[in-house]
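quick one if you have a minute, typing this from the bus. below you get a single protein, a line of residues and a line of whole numbers that encode the local backbone shape. could you go over both lines and see whether the tokens make sense for that sequence. anything you notice is useful, everything is just below.
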Amino acid sequence: MAANWQPRTILPGYTTVPSPITSLSFDPYTELIWSGNSHGQVCSLYGLDGQRYTSFTAHRNSPVKELCLDDRGIVTLGANGVKGTKRSAIGKWMVQEPRSSLEAMSMSPGSSEVVAGGNQLDLLVLNTNSGSLVRKIEVPEPIRFLKPGPRSSVVCGDVSGNVQIRDTRVSKAAMQHIQPHKDGLLGIESTGNILLSWGCTTRFGRVVPEPLVKVYDARMMRPLPPVSFPSGPSFVKMHPRLSTSVFISDIQGQFHVTDLSTSTGTYHMMDISSYVTSMAVSTSGNHLAFGDAEGSIHVWTDLEQGQPEQFNAFEGIELDWPSEIQTPPRIDWDDRTPLNSIGLPYYDTPLLSSMPLHMPLPDSSPMFNPPVPIPASVTKTLRTDMFPAHAQNPPENKGKRNVTPSRKAGRSGRNRIGGRKSDEPKFISEQIREKMKNGSVDDQQSRLQTQAESLEGDADDTATAVMPKHYRKVEIKYSKFGIEDFDFGFYNKTPYSGLETHIANSYTNALLQILHHIKPIRAVATSQTTLPDLKDNCLLTESGFLFRMLENGNGVNCQSTNFARALTSFPQAKALGILDTDAKSNGSAAYGNMIQSFNRFLLEQMSVESWTFQPCPQICNNGNMSPISQLLGIESISVSMCTDGCGSRSVRKGVTHVIELMYPRKTLSNEAPLPVDFNSILCASIIRESLTKHVCPVTKQFVPLHSRRIVSTFDTQFPAVLSINAGVHSKENLDIWLKPARPPGQSPYTPAPDHFLPLLFGIKRVQDQIHVVTDENAFTADMGLYSLKAVVAQIHPDAESNHLVSIVRISQDEMTDTTKSPWYIFNDFLVRNVSQAEALSFSDWKIPCVVYYEKVDIDSYINYAALNQQIDPSILCHDLSISWNRDPSMIKHEVLSEDELPAPGSLVAIDAEFVSMDREEIEFRSDGSRSVIKPSKLSLARVSVLRGEGRLEQKPFIDDYIHTSEPVIDYLTEFSGIMHGDLEPSTSRHTLVPLKAAYRKLRLLVDMGCIFIGHGLSQDFRIINLFVPKNQIIDTVALYQKKDSHRKLSLRFLSWFLLKQDIQLDTHDSIEDARAALLLYKMYSAFEKDGRLEDVLDDIYNEGRRLNWRPPANSGNNNGSNTPANPSYQVRGPPQQQTQPAAAVTSPSASAFTGSTTYIASPTATIPPFSPPVVATTPYNPQGTHHPWH
């Protein structure tokens, strides 16, 4: 076998520039040789003739490091990813790992999976058919080599020289490992139970290749006699058919064919002008291929002349070759040759030139379609001062150019070319701009407003195939002004607040809306927020804070940011798959299954967290359980009995909070059909009787085990709320909801119910059975009566995307308009009133997920007085810090005394600083425009609240740095003043508190009726996730904005102009900013009282336009230390402080500025001693060189 190896052919490379062949492989299913070079190109050659079959670029800027082939195609490995391709060079999938450097890849034996590894500390197990990530396997060291191992394992070689055998089916530690080469590993090879390795050794202080190939028995990692190779092995391949034969080669072109059992063999030398870069052996074992640095492939064979030369010993897959193009016959003709002598090809269909005129032409044809008239919004701004005439294109007309729009106005607006959809609102800034320009919003916006108001009556019958507009997935659009510019009011004209979608895990909005509108659950959650000791990441507490926002929002959109942050901190949530990761959030996630798992997890977690109440309040007559379990808990005893005759019986008590609907199995042809009505399914789901095979604890045999639940709840005690998971996982289950059946025992002439879900049903326990009745005439006094409260439905208009909505029945005492239906749909931030028939109807695109029922007499059933709803105001009088090394000199606040506790209408100044937790994602289009796909994620890092009045006016009583356990991407030090280490307890020198502690203080101030003064507070409160009513906000951005201008002035510019203070020079300080906002409000009040406000605003805007709205670089103001002597713009202060006399100054002549206004100074007061000296400002003095305006 080893004596007649001889060179067969040299296949040249097909690249223009010679590129080393970095990977080489014979196709085990066809007669192809595959090669990959250092430029990322892959080429396949057919047979020994080297006919090129395919060639393509698999990886850009990376060499092809590995090639793996199966019956469906080829998988290639690059430094930054793995790619699956068909043999015809058509790409199937691509998995990119931009943050890691992949080094090795191997097929997983016995499965359609491939394993890849590299510098990252885990192995990627990918499905070769779809490219999906099956699992990740953690490894202790970066991987350099991977080969198929025995059975379902792979052999791994890492950077430390260790060789491990790992089972890729589980994420466990290595089964076996050795370290054959202490000075480094150069390669491994594995076939069956034989493992080969070669590496480096140290000689005379230098690391050189070891002249041995070490052999191991892979079953026990037992060493076998090594094979000597004096020149140092570089490539080793096992013979595919002879288990003891091995091919060993070095880079110089010398290779050895040896037998492991006898250690004998023959040496061969290739005629090569460069060096060997790769090696492969065919599956028949009759051909060897060597790739060199010049891109050529040297093929050797041991076949005699005349023998069939095939790479495979069997007939493989037939290749698809391109069709041969027949060359048309050549015709000799000249100018005198008649054209009819050439002829035309035969045809059996009419020619295009013979098309009759009566045939319809497409909409884009100019024959029957005149050009679209130029919109009036363009013609009214047309300018003819130059040729040709030109006009500015309004934003609503922008889109793709040189494309004729379709004339078929689709119902959903999907045929519109470019621009936003026809049923989407304009940005608020666009509406304001048009209103200022035209006096009113244009006709299109007015039409959209009318359309939005009329959506409530759109398509009440959801059983139709057409989905109403208010069920569509709504998305937030971002302008250059951010999310504040989005018109949420367009989607919600009701007094019930919706929830925004731009945060992680926003799919939970549907269930959170339901829990909010169930009054007892809301009361328990909001009462939890009043407890003095709150642990971090408590879902019940975060729900309570969220419910308070929704309760006070009165139709203003809210965010569940803090709740989503707390949810991601639970490892159980990740294990259950209820976290909406980036991979899922593209719309393809199974949100219907996720919301049902989330419903189970949330109620169980809330039940555990509600034990925080001490003592536990008795809110209803359901025994000694936590408050949430008192509301939703179903006490039961699970009984399991062996049916093998041994008589073993196990009993387990428990409390369940969710009823999982169990649908009847498919019956046989000779069986009577099982009942599929709501009553029967609910009864069977509560009892959950089943027969499954388990190991008997007595006989230790695998026998059938009968199990059922005995419920003790529905005899005298009834849960206030029933939570039901619909569990619609198949078309058969959905058909039960779409085609309701009548309950058993009714007359066949009785019509079936219109809807599967009843509006009202009664339930009671009779011995060990549960009876459910939907006929109101059959209700008895000992029954618990439940009415339908809410439904979560999965909406999927197509097969690729889906989202969730909730439909809730609003309680009678919370209805603001009793003439409307009590049913409302909550589609994230879209809220609409819907009919009862629509709420109970389902369709192929509207699938039920979660259902909630509540007792009819729930308000009289619950003891709300046992739940405290007021936060203890003494938390404002206590100083809390979790910093280990707080520096007393860094404490800038003084907590309130008991006699300083705020009253309704008390003024406080506030400012907050934030850090970035995630960067924004921006899409740059080919026309140069940009669009924000996902905004940056900011988190509260510092909040400062100052007294706005009283003896200690301007003195902070809250100055908290916020501890965060999430990684901070950017501290934004230039804008926040937060440094690295300020938010860690071990390194912070400031007053550091948990987020929940700071949030409770702010929540308390809102509840106490404080009026917040600040600059740009809407954005601050949004990030803090706190809703503050508009009548409790005084925003200096709005105070100093002219009515006829959309320009908003910065705090720094206003402070420089009015207060003569240069703030925010090097960084931001929340105390300084809050104090500046307070002083600006005081000045605004004085200007408004004196009737000078409009004149001052004119001066500010004139100076702003002159300086481009930025203070001069060196204005000379440093907290008022260089202010002029004649004060005019002044701040009223505490009366007990020493004041300066007022001065009346007349303005300069009319030539200096328009008008002859006289600015009279208000009575002035100095600032309390603890604050920087803020001196009153000067009169308007355009000729003074010392004035910062000039």
Notes: The mean pLDDT is 80.
